[in-house]
Amino acid sequence: MPLVSDSLRYFLEVARTGSIAEASANLRIAASSISRHIARLEQSTGAPLFDRHPRGMVPTEAGRLLADHARRNLLEEADLLERIRDVDRSGRSLITVSCAEGFAEDFLPVEIARFREHHPAARVHLTVTEPAAATQSVAVGTADLALTFSLAPASGVRVAYSCQEPIVALVPSGHPLGELDGVSLADLQHHPLALMAGGSTLRELVDVCCAAEGLHLEPVLTSNSSTALNALARRTGAVTLTGLLSSRHLVADGFRIVPLTNPELHRRSLQVHTMAQRTLPAPVDAFVRQLVASIEATGLG
User: Fold this and answer.
1) Which of 61, 95, 197, 287 is the most exposed place for a label (fewest CB within 10 A)?
2) Tens digit of each residue's pLDDT (9 = 90 or more) over 174-219
3) Measured between alpha carbons, how far is 143 from 147 in angstroms, rounded to an integer?
4) How many whole angstroms separate alpha carbon 122 and alpha carbon 112?
């Protein structure tokens, strides 16, 4: 039997889908029953929870507040049931993590392995996605935490840690730029460039800089995969741009890190996000603390 009321569950599915009919199909509950539960919630709260439009139902401000409350309650219910089951399972626990791709190449696998040395029963589910999607997954409760990049404040999350993470140029060993103390985007016009595709915070800042300075960069490769960009750079001598933390392990793989002098490329934040006002289960909290300590140990903070 669920600990959170059916009314809240039905309400949350309507808020997610924007449709009683779609929520009915997903939950396999009669639409009339869902409508009655929502009516009871509106009567109990004394406020309309949805604006009804021909194209769907949109939560009101009161509805958004209730949706945040319902998501936290569902997560806390899942956490409680997990802890109860752990009594008979020798402390097994699942931690769901969402991250931008650069962290998945080296940093997070190392941290997961290190965490399991001290928490051998822990299981981790890692989803690699775009920075905004990683943050959103925490806000809606599909991930316990996100390691991501941010250019502006996000709603529905608590920033457990934040520090500036500059964008740098990554060049193969022996590249003529590798011996310089710093380069600008204008300097890169004369070299083959492998660049992240649109949708990333890195590309957004690069495009802002180029527009402000009247620069036109013509990458030989654009991709949403940093692995592909690094592979091309290794094989052809192209320059690629990346975050400082994401690139540190590549120094041992024959790359040089060269600082970029454009001030705009230094305003991106590396952040650890958890759901706002949520009390984290002990294993998740322990993993968050480990990540923060490891990032601080790099000197970024």
Assistant:
1) 61
2) 899 998 999 999 999 989 999 998 878 899 999 999 999 999 999 9
3) 11
4) 9
